[in-house]
Amino acid sequence: MKSQSTIVRNVPQQDLSNELKFFVKGATKKEKCNPLDLTKSALTLLKSLPASRVAVLEYFRFIFDNAALNYIKAIETEIKTGSFLTVPETDEVIVSEIHTLLSVLISGNSVAWAPMISTWSLELLGEISSKYSGRAHFSANLNETLQLWMACRATRTLVDINTKCLSSLIYSDTEASISALLDTSIKHSPHFDWVVAHVGSCFPNTVITRVLSCGLKDFCQNKSYEQGCDSPKLKSVVGILGHLAGSHVEDIREAILAIFNWSLRETFEDTDLHRLQKKATVPYILQLFYLSSTLLSAVCMSIKDTLTIEVIGRLYHYVEDWCRYFGTPEALEELLMTLILRCEQSGAQIIKLLLNCIHLTKIRGNDQMKLNIVEKSKDILFNVLQEMEKSVRHANPVGIVISISKDLKELENMFLSSEKLVFETAGHLVILLGHMNSSAMVTSAQFLLQNATNADQLVLFLKCLTSDLIDKTTPPYSEKGGHFSVVLEQILSRNIQKFFGSNEENLDLSQMWTNLLTLLQWEKSGRVPCLNSKIITRALEANLTNLTSLFSSEVLHMHVIADILDTMEIPKPTESYSPPIQVILNLTQSTVNYFFACCHDDGTSKKLKGFQKVCQILKRLCTYSKVAKVLALRELLESALFRSDNVLFGANNIEHDYEMDKGLLKQNKKINKTIPLTKHSSVFNGGIIGTGKRKSVCFDELPSHVVANNIYQLINAIKACCALLEENKYTDMSWDSMTLLSLLLVQFVSPDVMYNGLPWPEEDFSKVTMERDLFIRRMFTNTPLLWELLSFVAVYRPAICYCSVLIRALTATLMHQWKSMGEQSKSGLSENYKNLMDTTIRVIDVMALGQLLPPPLSSIRDVLPYLKCHEIVAVLRECVWCYMRDHIPSPALFGCDSNLVYWRDPIIARPPEMYTNTLRIIMQRNIKSLGHMYAQMFINIPTHDT
Amino acid sequence: MSGKSGASEISLKQSLRKIEYPSSAKDALNKIVDLICGRITSIKNMDLALDLMAEFVFLEIDRRGHKRGFPLTPLIELQLIELLYEYFNNMSNESARNTVFLSIFSGTTAIMRLGVLTKLVSVAIAIPSATILSSASAWMQQLGNTSQNSCKLAEGLIQDYFYFYNPNTSSINLVPSISPQFTANFLTAVTENYFNFTKRECIFPPKVLMESVTTWVSENPGLCIAAQQKQAVLPPGAIAMEATTPIAGLLRWTVLAPINKQDSQVYGDLHLALLNSIIEIPKVTPPKAIYAQHLTGPINPILSYVNDLRNKQELKLDQILNEDNLQLALDRYAQAIQVIYSVNAVYGHVDDLFHQLKLLPFNKLMSIVISTYKKNKVIIL
Fold first, then answer.
1. A435 CB neighbour count, 10 Å cutoff
2. Most A CBs within 10 Å: which of B24, B165, B166, B171, as the mutation test of the A interface?
3. What is the SS3 assignment for B113?
4. What are the tens digits of pLDDT across the range A872-899?
5. For residue A853, which of A5, A578, A847, B97 is within the disulfide window of CB 3.0 to 4.6 Å?
């Protein structure tokens, strides 16, 4: 308002009269005068003399026109000479003062002024745009024109004034103001388009709708396609919409869809003109798309919701009219093809629509129509795919290819279709994408591998990977052993993250594992030519590290993975591929884990097969690598003996007790805090107040047949570890491995490294070792498996020698126990006595089995049950202990025969009498019951001679 | 004689044609004054004057007498208006001025030149000119101040001063004091434009107009009859037309306002101002201020309003007749009739008026007014 007071001089009435005279003279060019003064005078009149307003606006026309002319001249000079001629400053001042006052008028009383000023400004803009359309470097490009005119003060001001008018009218009189705009547009088209475009961006909804319908009306009047193409009106429409598309895509889409939907609705009220327009709507829209790809992609976005099968059915009836319009059906088809190929949005939706049309089942209409639609859709789909492939091969992909590459999800859905054509099309598309960018193909292949449920889909998967369109010379193909390997790597590493990272992705890989196995089996079968290059094996080998570490974590799929690993035969003796040590270690460890998992498993056939696989894998590994062997044996033993798995093998799991303890120290500390006065109060481990007396621990014992079977399988697994590379006729175990096993047993069972040597000391010395002897004894009691292992070792002589310390410890404790047993207990045959006798017999059995005790000492087991306790002690001490003390159990005692079998000839190795006399005397004393034995042991002695 | 005058006619036109436009128009005007205000006015002179107006003042025809397409651009028009303003404003002889004014803007060309006239009057309001306004007043009166042309003039002025511009900041409010006669005629014409149920679309006066009119009438009780108080000086031989006062028309507004959802307080104020004005009408015999037939204006709209309500069938007849708006309208109507009758300002068929009033829905005041009238009439009889 302040500026306004400077413009409009507040004049007394008499001056108004003078002002009028001055203005009339100046404006009609009677007298030359300063344009600025004249403008001020005009503004004064406009403010105070109502009757003058039309004349004043008329005068402003000259001013704006002149300002525009000056601007154009300046630009022309600039083009010609290169130097910019400044626009006269007075123009700027005058225009801005007019702008100010008109704005005040509009905002002050928009109902009266806005329509008038709006019409005035539009007409003036139209005139100016037309008048100078050929001047300067005006091009037909709407954006350039817009920029050029918006740089001009006069026209910019007019546009601004007009916008002000429209925005004040928009609620009261939209229709009128927009149609005034378009009327002017029609009059001055196409030079006026930039104004419409600009106004359109201020009032997008209204303008877009009107412009579209205006274009349609014009389009209808053209009789043929060629004529329609050349229509300047259509170009105007495209120009305006194209300009608006930048910021009002949504509105444009809605408007286009609205007229499309309108064209589909036939009502009885339609006039002939309306019918004509409705028929022309689709060709019109197509034409718009042809001229502007912006519009095309704007609408493509919603193609899914717009073009449904039902809509296609309705459109079918128009086709004849359209063909007539385009001249030939081919012309229409060609246009359609061009548009489809050009789509940069929703390409996948278009393909899907075509496929849906091909698999048309339900449609309102006769069979002929259905047939036509299906056939045509097939044609188009085929052509589109062909064109796409052509473009891709020429390294110049069309829009739709790019569009599809953004929409891999849709392709993935297509993969899972049951229709052959659908997933094959998807495969075709993936190959095309893969040609440009292998990562897209890899992503799709991943999906396919994880979700394929039938052989067809797997075949498609292989086709994608092996297609000749896929570049196989560049990374990652060349580096990592093929795309398949990359696919696997991505799946597996994601899965590893799932287990080791916190962010969970709920991946269900079961299908993937099954598919992988299937593929591997196909490859092994050698009947699939495209797999002859062993891409599956190569890929798996490249991913073995991940695969093997997943083997232990993927509990749900361990059987399948075991199958895969077993089928792969790692390490394959015939092939050059040598797996890295990490793989060997991983595989060994996870196979051992798998073994125990199988033990836990309930399923019988899977379980049994699992054990077989374990043995096969372990055998391969252990014969290949010593490290693997050590690891496998150690892991097997440790788990079976000490970890919670030992329950499987009948152990009394002591460790469980500790979990129940609350920690005495903790409790004592707690009491200290709560009862500070009683200094010496302590908690003793008689139980916890409140929880009652300490309960004796009950073990969930497994049924004995289960334990037996588990032990059998464990021994098998250990055998597999110790197996020879090539099976010998007489022995299948390697001597080294058995020694290793034996040493491992000592290591695990013996509590310290002292006194683990082979020799047996004087019996008195056992006073020193008694504590550890008892420890060892308890191990054997709690872990019955140890007996089995010891027996197993004993069979494969001379490995048992290394377990000498265990046997000695057992014997020492037995002797001690028999000594303290006393005679009275024998009559009662107490539990204790039975246990002691069993254990003694077991120890003697093992020694006999391992040929540590030669005959007749080896038969002591049969004698013992008939003897009294002190006699047993005497036998154990005089015969067993003394013999062992004087004959150190070492491999040196054993000879190796021609078949590489170690043994001790019982005839040659017969003990001297000093070790057997005690036994003989005791037996003689008990000859009543031991007569038959005596003969066997001391009289019928075999010799080499007989 | 005729040949000579014919020759002088041509030479006059020739000489005028040599002069550039605004000056030629001025010269032509002077010539026209001579032609029609002279002692002897002949039809021939009159024709020549009309020719000169068409060719030199309004540029309606070219030298061969053919019509021009678009004679005046807005700027030229403004130039002409400025010229006419100066010319008439400085013409002291009222008789000559009115003569020229009437002849320029009347007759067959009246409609064509109405735009110029409207703008001229508009300028005469903006740059106050009592002389021009009085001529305009005479023009309205002679053409009939409720005639179509007068109404159009009024509408144009309202556009200028009440639609595009705010009356409170312009000089329109000075007009009643500058030229009460013009104001009265203007108001009469304005009343025809609003609350007119005989037109296709009935429109109502904008608020600013209502406010101004109310202010004018209440500040100057004599304004309504001003045109009757002072007769304009007319050309010799002309028959002076009696001015219609705006009273009946404005009463139509105030009476019909309540039943047309125009419930602004300003209608009440205007009604009061009108009643005050009526009371102050000086007694003359025979009365001439208000024509009885003009007062029947509200009757038909009221009856059709009642009919509409009845057709909607939402209300009982009883409720319709006691509706507040209807009763307010009838109250105002009865008040006005009573006051007018009491100051004896009505002429024409008063019996007929009262006969028609009886058709209206029952209203206590109205029934009293009617019965009083009957009583008085019986007494006179």
1. 21
2. B165
3. helix
4. 888 898 888 999 888 888 888 888 877 7
5. A847
